[in-house]
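Following up on my earlier message about iron/sulfur cluster. Here are the inputs again, as you asked, copied directly from the submission form:
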Amino acid sequence: MGTPLEPRSEQVTEVLDRLYEEYPDSTISLNYSTRLELLIAVILSAQCTDERVNSVCAELFETYQTPEEYANAPQEELAEAINSITYYNNKAKYIRSACADIAEEHDGEVPDTMSELTDLAGVGRKTANVVLQHGHNVVEGIVVDTHVQRITRRLGITEEERPERIESDLVDIVPEDDWQQFTHLMIDHGRATCTAINPDCTDCVLADVCPSAKPDADIDLASGDPW
Ligand code: SF4
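Thanks, got it. Here's what our run produced:
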């Protein structure tokens, strides 16, 4: 079991230093070339792998280009086009509705504020944060996805459980300049080493500062359950 640094801001600094070193090219892994494509890819990525989303979007973005084209696409047609994505029926509805709003209320442009974005169908704070950061260069918060949620708890950086609570905890202790990269570094580490099931603690650069590190720790602090 590793020993986390005190206070938590020190732990964050140490974790960031090591992960920047480990993943120097860390960035978003969804493919897109416009803000609308980014928004659609992020809506599709909820509980689905970025790899799958990229593969579906390669064709989807050829077929539909404007908000009007998505909004006017028949529900069955759009659902069929994304049917290898989780919850494709609901996601097709969200995309058609969000695109109708973008066309009618935002002159066809993806909005650039948190409140306007979260008013769109299928867009929660996490999706809005990604679109603001990568589509508009506006960093208003920290994107808390499943990797950020799991690893910040394992590392003793937060004890909160819900993404919104974790985000408000993190913005107080993660330097603002690192808000965007914090998420990408956690995602890279979550994919490479600190996986949900059976993380590779013996080969982890954070093991000596991680209170969940196996084999010494008995408990996975992410779930509170024994390893
Ligand atoms: S892989 Fe293990 S040691 Fe590394 S951060 Fe995850 S739980 Fe901690």
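One observation from looking it over: The chain has eleven helices and two strands. Hope that helps, and feel free to reply on this thread.
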